Amino acid sequence: MSNVYFSGDGHIGHQSILKYMPERPYATELDTTAHDKWLIDLWQKTASKHDKIYYAGDLTFYKSEDARRLLEQLPGEKYLAVGNHDGTIKAHSNYFRKVAQIMEITIKPLMCETLSEELHIVLCHYPLLDWPGKQQGAVMLHGHCHGTMDDYNANSADLRFDIGIDGTLAKQAGGFIDIKTLYEAILKKTGGLTPQQYANENY
Question: What pTM does this model have?
Answer without folding.
Answer: 0.96
